[in-house]
Amino acid sequence: MTSIDRTAYPRFARRASTRELDGFTPAVDEVAWAREMTKTDPHLLALVVWLKSYQRLRYFPSLDEVPDWVVGHIRSLLELPETVAAEVDASRTGKRHREFVRARPGVKYDQAEVRDIAEAAIRAAAQNKDNPADLINVALEELADAGRELPGYTTLDKMVARVRTEINGNVFAEVTARVTAAQRARLLGLLRVNPATRRSEFDRLKVPARAATIGKLKERLAHLAKLDAIGPTEQWFRGVPPGKISHFCGEARVTDAADMSKVNEDKRVTLLAGFIHVLRISARDEVTEMFCKRMAVVHKKSRARLEELREEHRLESERLLEVFGEVLAAAREAGTQDPDAPGDAAEPQADGNAEEVGTRSEEVDDGDAPESEEASEAAAEPVDEQAELARRTGVLVLKALAEGGGVARLSAAHEAVAAHHGNNYLPLCEQYYKSHRPAMFTFADAVVFEATSAERAVLDALEFVKTLREMDRRAEWIEESVLVEWDGEEVVLSVDVDAFAGPLWKRTLRDKRRPGLLNRRHLEVCVFSHLASELRSGDIAVVGADSYANLHAQLMTWEECEPHAAKFCQQAGIPADPKALVAHYRKLLTDTAKDVDAGYPANTDLRLEDGKPVLARHKGVERRPSALVLEAAILDRLPERHLLDILARTAHLTGWPRHLGPASGSDPKIRDSLGRYVITAFAYGGNLGPTEVARHMRGVSAHEI
Questions:
Q1: In 182-237, which ranges are E strands?
Q2: Are 326 and 400 in contact (CB under 8 A)?
Q3: In whole angstroms, how far apart are CA 128 and each of 134, 172, 248?
Q4: Residues 215 and 262 in one domain
Q5: Half-sphere exposure of 226 (CA within 13 A, CB side)
Q6: Less Cβ around it within 10 Å: N or C end of the chain?
């Protein structure tokens, strides 16, 4: 039987609260009416109990099922002795009392009509839903809208079981007919137990994904390939609602291989097919999530490596600055030496440079002869001074560079420091991407991507790098456009990095000395990095996934929404006419603005700064001494409770374990289900494993948890 706790079937409350008692309090006219219809006190009490129970529950419970607090509350209001019990002498009397209650509001009970309404609602809902509790709730809602009396709970439960079996049987036959003999053999082969490991492939497939390491990503990609090789499950379940497929998978997931072999073959094949179908969807989500996490790790390691390089090159940068300072000092020293000093050249201007020397030399050597010897000697004298200055500066600079380690060593150090002097860590990503490269391309080949908008630059770039890999292009630099053969024709395939890459990526991919070329390795990292970013943002979706599916395709079209728009507006309390709706919200906004303006002078939390509203943090009122005393008294009197005791008490008072139970919606078959659910919640809430909890508790096993 379906657990009644998981349905909306009305029942008596677990405890007598003030609100519940008010619902069972009879009015004066109701008491007078009941006294006219009965002659004895027990009949009077029974009639009033049934009257208030019917008004509250919309069905007649057995008098034995009515809680004592309801009977006692009504008995006290009727001023009857404690010895009076709510009872009828014969079934015929009870039937007459129920007719009295129905006649008072003018309700006519037609059992056949109620069954027809409930069955029609269940049959329509069973096309999309499969949980028995959901189907019972649909029938209850339909009967409530029709204003009909509710049938017994067992009546609804049996009706749901019958209709559900009929509809699911048709689905089982339809799905099985689409599975070929070879595919059916592969599905049934999953239940075969390996004598060595004593486990079946069906059991092994239930193992969840591990941490997102590169090794686990490769294993999960192989797992996805095996699932895809079983068969096209999306074709098998064509036309079957996703809710039913999920329920079939849930039923298969909680069933072991031995129990699965006991059901008929059509149902067995359908449950296995649904299990594989959901696993394929989950596997696509898992490998996509792993891919995004691995790319995030690549970038994280690259940023960390950039910081390490900065720290490593800190001393080298300081040494290069020191050498540069010595070079500048040598240049200043060469320009300030006394020209009359022995062994030293004449002193030129301090700001003279080699370019000026070369220019003046060209002026002398341009082929024009001086007009006189005096002019020739006058023109030759500054050239000699500049040449001597350049020679003396070069000697001192070379000496400073030699003392700094030599030109070759200093050039290499400069290149190493200059490569990472900015905040661009992207060139470092390639060294951490190399080990991921095979898995990244395997992932790109294993799933199908689709753009959720008109922008396809990243997907086009992905096709570009995949084509380069297929062409076995290993050159470090490749053209932005390549010629490929497609269906016997030559097609130009190009990539537009400007459409999606940022400035730092463009600087990494291109080289000014190689126009029109891109760095192939960095391009792959760039494309996969943007692919991961687009997958997270939802701009790119994975076909056949769940978490990374195209959510736009799941939205209802306006043609589907239009018939329900008027009813929605009525329920929401807004006008359905477009002009009236605009006027409604305009008036609402205007009234709200007037209220805000009127209360602004007294609003100390809101102020205007440069014409912009600024909301200050609201300061709470200081607590009075009496409140502090009350808090201390509560803490002093409130006894310490263990977490397990709190869970058990709240479970008893609120009944939250009713939301747990088998996937089928039936009542749990384990003994003391309330205690087991409390212990399980304690285990998961305390982040404890089943084995660890079972080791410290008697009477519960890890398997039950």
A1: 193-194, 199-200
A2: yes
A3: 11, 14, 12
A4: yes
A5: 14
A6: N
